[in-house]
Structure formats: structure tokens, C-alpha cells
Amino acid sequence: MNQKEIEMREKGLTGNILKWIAIITMLIDHTAVAIIQNGIFQSETGLTLDQQQRWAQLYWVMRYIGRLGFPIFCFLLVEGFCYTHSVKKYMFRLGIFALVSEVPFDLALFGNVFYPSYQNVYFTLLIGVFTLCGIRHFGGADIKSRILRVVSLLGGLAAAHILQTDYDMYGILLIVVLYLFREKVIWRDIAAGVVLLLCSLTELTGLVAFVPMHLYNGQRGRQMKYFFYIFYPAHLLILGLITRYVIL
Questions:
Q1: Cβ contacts of residue 33 below 8 Å, gap of 6+?
Q2: Mean pLDDT of the chain
Q3: Beta-carbon neighbour count of residue 213 at 10 Å?
Q4: pLDDT for 7
Q5: Pick from 18, 24, 53: which is nearest to 36 by CA?
Q6: What is the rounded distance in angstroms from the CA atom of residue 173 to the CA atom of residue 191?
Q7: Residue 245 per-residue DSSP state
Q8: Which helix (H) or strand (E) holds 124?
Q9: What average pLDDT does range 19-46 have in this prediction?
């Protein structure tokens, strides 16, 4: 390791810091949906036109800030996939928290305890890891391996679309792009940016997430693994309860 690489590791952002950036921006995003969209705008308390405009402006500012969260989570997922000692345990954790998070997710974002038409982001991440497993397993240069890699990708895209997971098939495509171009950061940014914009033009501010991704120093940082897993369903549950029992 040369001196420049050593300095980069010392000055860059650890994986732990990236996680904090992702969960804070995610919290801002979900607060906008649960509290403002599902709560304040739906409450019986009448708002003046000026108040509606102010809340709407705040809502969109928070949503645009929230666009940073998902690309960073996908980036960290790929890093975790590449370095985990057990992919099976990694997928098991994602699966467990996908199930645990579904009721809080539905309550906070859709106002219902059960909303089968849209699934939380843990399902997206889990399908993404399954897809990466297929792509890595069929890593040969022969025609058969290439075809099976495409089949793995199409299977992941189809699963996300059929289950209607958060970010749909674009979430899977983003994860795959971040994995395939992991060592070619310029192409990674271009491809990932295209995927985000194909998903929605509102994801434009999500491109800002590439800045902390470039500053990542390859270090895991302070380990708070289960805190980040638990935070997702916990904050959604709190937001959902506040909306239902305090605001409405």
C-alpha cells in the first residue's frame, strides 16, 4: 500500500459513516411521507392555502434529500456481499428483517397494517443479493455462463416487479450495476445515474450520493451491525404510530 492509499484510508469515510448518512436521509424521507403526506395533509384540521404551500415545499425538500439513502444502501450491500464470510447468513438476516419490517412499513407509508401491493426495501435488497449470487456463480467466459448470468439478472428483475418491492426492478438493476462496475468507478457512476433517472426524474438528487461513495475508504468503521438492521422497522413503527394516534 502506497502513501496515497494510506492517507485516503485515514481521511476517507468509513462504511459506518456511510450508513449514518443513508439512515438519516432515509429518516427524513420517511418522515415526509408518514407525517406530512399521510398525517398533516390527511388530518381533519383545516390548513390555509399558505400553510398548505409551506408544508408542500417542506415535503418536497425532505423527499429530495431522502433520495440519497437508497443508492448508498445499495453500495453498502454490494460491499457487504463481496466481503461477508457467509452469504447465506447475510441473506437470512435480510429475509428476517424484511418480514419484521413489513407491518411497520405499511403502517407508516400507507396508513394500513397490511398493504400487500408494495413491499419494503429489505425485500429489494434480498432479491438483489440472490441476483448477485447467480451472477457470481455463473462467472465463466463461455456462452452458457453468460446466458445464465443474464437469466439471473432477468429473474431478479422479474421477482422485484412481481412482488412490487420498493424501487421495483430498478432497485435490482442498480445493485447489479454497482457490483459489475465496482472497480470502474466512472462507468459505475454513469450506469448507476442512468438507472436512477430511468426509475424517476425525482431521483436526480440521488446522484449526490455518489460523492460520499467516492470518499469511502474501504474501512468498516465502528461496528453497529444490528442497530442499523433494527433501525429500519423501528423508525417506521414510530412514525406510523405518531401519524395514526397523534396527528389523525
A1: 63, 108, 109
A2: 94
A3: 21
A4: 54
A5: 53
A6: 10
A7: I
A8: helix 121-137
A9: 94
What percentage of the chain reaches a pLDDT higher than 90? 89
Residue 72 amino acid letter: I
**C-alpha cell, 27:** 429518516
Query: Which DSSP symbol is given to 141?
Result: S
d(CA 26, CA 32): 10
User: Rounded to whole angstroms, how far apart are CA atoms 47 and 214?
Assistant: 43
Is residue 127 within 8 Å of residue 165, measured between CB atoms? yes
| Res. 44: pLDDT tops 80 | no
Look at residue 220 and give its three-state secondary structure.
coil
Distances in Å between the alpha carbon of 228 and those of 73, 76, 130, 224, 225? Answer: 11, 12, 21, 7, 6
Asked whether residue 68 carries a pLDDT value surpassing 80, the answer given is yes
Phi, psi of 143 (to 5 degrees): -60, -45
Angle in degrees, 0-180, between the axes of helices 168-180 and 121-137, rounded to the nearest 10: 40
The amino acid sitting at 69 is G
Which residues does residue 156 pair with via DSSP β-bridges, in sequence order? none
Q: How buried is 172 (Cβ within 10 angstroms: 0-12 exposed, 13-18 middle, 19+ buried)? A: buried
Q: Is the pLDDT of residue 176 over 80?
A: yes
Q: Contact 25/69 with Cβ under 8 angstroms?
A: yes
CA distance 240 to 156: 30
